[in-house]
Amino acid sequence: MRLRGNLQQLWTGGIIGLAVAFVFPLHARADDKVTFYEDWFPEVEHGGAYQAKATGIYQKYGIDIDLQPGGPQVNGSLLLLGGKADFVTLHTDGELLHGLEQGTPLVAIAAQYQKDPQVLLSHKGVGHDTMESLKGVPILLSQDSFSSFWPWLKKKYGYTDDQVRPYTFQMAPFLNDKMAVQQAYLTAEPYAIKQGGVDPNTFLLSDYGWDTYAALLVTRADVIEKKPELVKRMVQATLEGWYSFWQNPKPGSELVQKLVSTSDGQVQYSLGEMKARGIVLSGDALTQGIGTMNDARWKSFYEAMVAAGLYKPGLDYKKAYTLQFVNDKSFITKMTEQYPDAVKNGSP
């Protein structure tokens, strides 16, 4: 489950209605009905899917999309395993590796984010201006952090469990205590904290070596085996949604704002941080295309997590992902030709 604060906007609808009244058929047959659960409430951080919905891109690929929200009470992995979803977004590689340890047949088919937006926040001017300076300092963390980034932080910086204080997903403890440090999501809590008059240090963990992919597009192994052509269309439609979104985010952003009470300020802040920090478009994605993954990075992350004591050695980690549907040169060329400003608009 992705680690979020209390900035979630309330889900105001059920099944998302049609966003366009026209269809761009690629196939003579009827569109394939696909249920896709995101990992949180509708937000511009899910720009690819909402853009693809709003502009008819899913329909162009022959997909009748049922795009559903996630949230704290929605377990995407269980929905996928139970056949209630065909595709889901899961937060990081760690969720796939943990599932693999449990024997679940979940497979990542694309990485919508090259960087995990997980951050730590601290107040400026109190001696907490570097990651090293946070050793021994009380840090507000959710329980989920213990099965994700916290073991890595302990290994890398020598942090200890006695530093941990419970994070209640409220901003008041941080705003009222200049010595406080807390976890956050890059595009969420910092905006509210700044509205409260505090400009915090924002340590993006991926910039310090937390090298997981994020916002992974995931399905079951049997779906890949039985319907590889559908999986390919789903991946390419969602990734084209991202290219279209960075070319012009207005359609996807407006659809999100129709579904949730998200302010223009929050939308612009989220988009700005995603771009400035290279969440979607940075590193390999600049040359290998949005959604790219590679064996070396999965191996590196797995080995780092083994070293941190989160996973046992010997796990066949390659079963957690496939490169079958990403790094397609012809598709990347097509996207860059069709959306010539997408990379420029979406990268730092």
Give structural notes.
This protein is of the alpha/beta class and 348 residues long. The protein has two domains: 32-114 and 212-346, D-Maltodextrin-Binding Protein, domain 2 (3-Layer(aba) Sandwich), CATH 3.40.190.10; 118-208, D-Maltodextrin-Binding Protein, domain 2 (3-Layer(aba) Sandwich), CATH 3.40.190.120. It has helices at residues 47-55, 57-60, 76-81, 93-101, 149-157, 172-176, 189-195, 221-226, 228-247, 250-259, 264-276, 285-288, 295-307, 329-338, 342-346, and strands at 32-37, 63-68, 87-92, 106-113, 118-122, 139-141, 164-166, 181-185, 201-204, 214-220. The strands form two sheets. The chain has a five-stranded mixed sheet, with helices on both faces. A five-stranded mixed sheet has the order 7-6-8-5-9, with no helix packed on it.
